[in-house]
Amino acid sequence: MESRPNAIIYWTLLAYKEWSFYIAASEKGLSYVGSQQKPFEEMRDWISRRFPESELVQDDEIMVPFLQELIEYLQGKLQVFSIPFDYRGTPFQLAVWKALCEIPYGQTWSYSDIATHIQKPAAVRAVGTAIGANPILITVPCHRVIGKNGTLTGYRGGLEMKTRLLNLESGKIAQEL
């Protein structure tokens, strides 16, 4: 009896204008969008924790549909993603990530807005933790979450990346911090 091969996670580097980050996908969909200008190891380590026993394979051709939509978004031409996702988390994390996808393009919600939306109004801190664990930056738009007082809060990709994404969505020219 032959042993079954490990699952394959495909990856590529998105390099478009000043944007540069790694992305990865399983056969089911986009699994990871990395932080701006971070090393390959950030993605590799994340994949090894979330998809144990998987093989990480660079395949630029398979990744084209994901690259196309992300680049269209970065060009300001795409507001809603149609690519499939394959994210793995707890039921609570999945509920938070689903709520993030319901924040309209160009708008922001607070952590308490998300907690209320998922019918867990007392879970604001847990919502923040789940948002911090979001594996698919940009496409699961955690950059649209701000503090209750309107201030920018933490972002895995860094506050500069968050600011640039919010400026892109508001139609402003991206300002460097």
Structural descriptors:
single chain, 177 residues, alpha/beta, Arc Repressor Mutant, subunit A, four-stranded mixed β-sheet, two-stranded parallel ribbon, 6 strands, globular
Number of strands: 6
**Mean pLDDT over the full residue set:** 91
**Helix share bin:** 25-40%
Question: Main sheet: which strands, in order across?
Answer: 3-2-1-4
Tally of contiguous helical segments = 6
CATH class of the largest domain: Mainly Alpha
Give structural notes.
- The chain is of the alpha/beta class.
- The protein has two domains: 8-74; 91-170, Arc Repressor Mutant, subunit A (Orthogonal Bundle).
- Helices cover 34% and strands 16% of the residues.
- It has a four-stranded mixed β-sheet with strand order 3-2-1-4, sandwiched between helices. Strands 5-6 form a two-stranded parallel ribbon.
- Strand 1 (8-16) and strand 2 form a beta hairpin.
- The longest helix is centred in the last third of the chain and has 12 residues, at 159-170.
Give a quick rundown of the structure.
With 177 residues, this protein is an alpha/beta fold. The protein has helices at 40-50, 64-74, 91-100, 111-117, 124-132, 159-170; strands spanning 8-16, 19-25, 30-33, 55-58, 109-110, 145-146. The chain folds into 2 domains: 8-74; 91-170, Arc Repressor Mutant, subunit A, CATH 1.10.10.10.
